[in-house]
Specification:
The chain is mainly α. It is built from 20 helices and no strands. The longest helix is centred in the first third of the chain and has 27 residues.
């Protein structure tokens, strides 16, 4: 106990303090009900986001720059946690998380090149992180040469796999999706490897990461089924980590005849309470995002539960960062919806925090 207080005493106090300043439902409602995008932005003036949006209030709104600025708020929180870690295994785990975020940036760059997206458009979803700053992102996207991007990938086996996907897959959309899945699989396995080395109460992180990996495997299976890929092709993109979603369950879903049959496998498992209520809606809409959003909302609730448990462990910092990331993504979704004049109910559909369990 004394060791836990030494390692996490300061971090616990700071994290719980930071969490108390997160937005609440009334903040979301005010932004959603704002008459204009500038009015929505002004709702953030009195929050911890003020330093990140103050410049945007006095200049013409730019969606890409707004996303970059808000994401900077998350990156600063991540780096704060990283700077406060005293436990060696916890630090190694977070360093692997840090690398996974860099690889997400690399993924966005490669997909932009493969799909022929301009820098101006790519700026809307390409988030600079770590060693890959906005100047590097722009340079690589404008060069339009994936080989230059691969030089940023230190992991040789991953670089080779991406090259293999590019040589064997002709369709640009499928190529981009396959590369994204390959990078996500690599990152998830590395993170899980470090995660299993954690001791004591730090092991509470396993649940939070395990659910995220389960979601990745479910959504990858369903989306690739929809694209009519063969079971062996889908299998290569499954992350071989199983938490609440069992290995046999995943294999049955992968070998199912179509996405509807794969869903029946998942609805009979431990995520039944999340998936089952959406089945009838899916039969009408045929939109897999229904399940992904509901699963993300479930994960957010599990992150909240961490703060009702004993103090002084890594799980609090990880849960806070997941919640902060959801909040930042929600803010970007709200502002994007306002920018394109989407109805409030369409914007709310994609949000994770302060929403009902099911997006219906």
């Amino acid at each position: 106990m004394i060791k836990s207080i030494y390692e996490y005493g300061e971090l616990t106090v700071r994290i719980r303090g930071k969490k108390s300043f997160m937005l609440v439902k009334s903040d979301y409602d005010a932004m959603l009900g704002a008459e204009s995008i500038q009015a929505a932005l002004r709702r953030l003036e009195g929050t911890r986001y003020h330093p990140y949006i103050s410049q945007m209030l006095i200049e013409e709104f730019n969606l890409g720059k707004t996303e970059e600025s808000l994401t900077k708020a998350y990156i600063d929180e991540f780096n704060f946690v990283l700077s406060k870690l005293k436990n060696r295994k916890a630090l190694e785990f977070f360093q692997e998380l840090n690398r996974s975020l860099e690889l997400k940036t690399i993924t966005s760059i490669i997909k932009s090149i493969v799909l022929g997206v301009s820098w101006e458009k790519a700026l809307e979803y390409t988030v600079p992180f770590g060693k890959i700053d906005s100047v590097t992102c722009r340079k690589l996207i404008e060069e339009k040469n994936v080989k230059n991007v691969l030089q940023l990938i230190e992991e040789e086996s991953l670089a080779r796999e991406i090259e293999k996907i590019m040589s064997e897959t002709e369709d640009p959309i499928l190529q981009g999706n396959m590369i994204e899945l390959a990078i996500n699989k690599h990152s998830s396995m590395k993170i899980w490897e470090k995660l299993t080395e954690l001791k004591g109460r730090d092991k509470q992180c396993i649940r939070l990461v395990g659910i995220v990996i389960d979601i990745s495997n479910m959504m990858a299976t369903l989306r690739l089924k929809k694209l009519e890929l063969k079971p062996d092709e889908i299998e290569t993109h499954i992350i071989p980590v199983y938490y609440m979603l069992g290995e046999k369950e995943v294999k049955r879903a992968v070998t199912a005849s179509n996405d509807a049959e794969a869903l029946k496998v998942f609805v009979s498992g431990k995520y039944v309470d999340v998936i089952s209520p959406l089945m009838s809606a899916y039969e009408v809409r045929k939109d897999l995002s229904l399940f992904e959003i509901a699963l993300r909302r479930y994960h957010a609730k599990e992150c909240e539960r961490i703060f009702f448990q004993p103090f002084f462990h890594l799980g609090e910092a990880l849960a806070y960062l997941y919640l902060k990331l959801y909040e930042v993504k929600d803010l970007i979704a709200i502002l994007t919806g306002k920018y394109f004049n989407l109805p409030v109910d369409k914007i709310e559909y994609s949000l994770v925090l302060h929403q009902p369990p099911y997006p219906i």
